[in-house]
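Record copied across here:
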Amino acid sequence: MALGASSARLTRLNGTLSLEVPRADSRWVSLAELDRRLESDDHLRRALNCPGTAILGMDSEGVPLLLRLSSPDVAHCLIAGTTGSGKTELARTIIASLLIHQKPRDLQIALFDPKGHGFAPFARAPHLLFPIVRDPAETLRRVHYLVAEMERRDRGAAVGAPRERPRVVIVMDELADLLQMCGTELEALLTRLVQRGRSAGFSLVACTQKPSARVVGSLVKANFPVRLVGRVASTDDARVAAGIGGTDAEKLAGRGDFLLIAGGQIIRFQAAYVKPEEIAARLEPDAQRDAAESFSARMFGRLRRVK
């Protein structure tokens, strides 16, 4: 009341209490600006070229945050938040960062978009394993293919086959809705994928606005070591989404205000934002070259692509 703030968030870390209030002069973090800043550092530029490494945003100290899906401690990631929290925008930022910095011979992406417009700017990306999936029946068919490909790679690794294979990143928007529409069959397939995918080079990034234990609890509980949690509806949803209690995620400001939960640590950050027209502008200059590389690699059997 004394600060004249509409809301406040009180947190405790290592014996220190922090009182957080929304800034009156808040502004969004541009992925393009953050990208230019990272490109000026040789070490960070090399890190971004590593398959599965993406930009998340900036923490409260102004330090850029990267997500490294290829790390054994990460592999899979859950993005949770209500409508308006910025979860789909954060997923778009992750996808755009992967596509801009990594080549189709090193990285392939499978996109599932039940809403039909969240991932539309990436429809022509040469990294796509198959066209963006929107239909529930098509979702089951494509996930069956991904599980079969994962098992094929596992068998190849067991007999000492060469490891010249691109990393596969699967991004699913509205996970809870997909599970409700596709039933236990999809849940069983995704559980198998997240349990065995790491060693085969598969990573799942899943978004949901309904992180309740009833909807996603059994799948999420032990299989997503990294959580990106925006504003949620209740304390119970915050606990399920974060995997731990006391995060106060229900008090976040929304619009890209997120918590990174990994290894028991909690980091608050502002997600980077990329406009749809910026995505097209960044991808288009390299699209023909990357498509040619993708075709050449397929001709030599290095990539498996579903028509």
